[in-house]
Structures are given as C-alpha cells and as structure tokens.
Amino acid sequence: MERNLFTFIVSCTGGSLTACNADCAAKYPNITGDNYPTASTCFSNCSTNCSLSATLLLLTNK
Predict the structure, then answer these.
(1) HSE of 6 in the Cβ direction (CA atoms, 13 Å)?
(2) 17-50 burial: b if 16+ Cβ within 10 Å, else e
(3) Can you tell me the distance from the alpha carbon of 44 to that of 22, in angstroms, rounded to the nearest whole number?
(4) Which tens digit of pLDDT belongs to each residue from 15-45?
(5) How many structural domains does the chain have?
(6) How far apart are CA 18 and CA 2, in angstroms?
C-alpha cells in the first residue's frame, strides 16, 4: 500500500488534477507545433495519474 501511495504522490504533480493541469499549462503556455505532442502527453498523464478511481484502485490493491 505504501508503494502504491508513493506512486500516486510522484505521478500526480501537485497532488490533484487541477494542480497537475496547472503545472502542464505553466510548462507549455503555447500548445502549438512542436509543443503540442509533449503538452498533450502532459495533460493526458495528469488525467490518468490524478484519477480518483485509479488512486482508489492503487490503494486497495495489495
């Protein structure tokens, strides 16, 4: 359980979806051209890593 909680803390920048998305927005203020794939990945990772249901699954998984 500690490992799974650590995974959430490390993967979800800022500890919430809003904070994670804000971090991506700060890193990639212009989502055009070459930045688009990287920015898109950043936002997608936030959605995945900060998902409440995914976090609950991690915490309940032994």
Answers:
(1) 3
(2) beebbeebeeebeeeeeeeeeebeebbeebeebb
(3) 13
(4) 888 999 999 999 999 888 989 999 999 999 9
(5) 1
(6) 24
C-alpha–C-alpha distance, residues 62 and 60, integer Å? 6
Domain span at 45 = 2-60
Q: Output the DSSP codes for 3-55.
A: HHHHHHHHHSGGGSHHHHHHHHHHH-S--STTHHHHHHHHHHHHHHHT-HHHH
pLDDT tens digits, 45-61: 998 888 877 667 766 76
Tokens of 37: 């794939």
The structure tokens 């995974």 sit at: 7
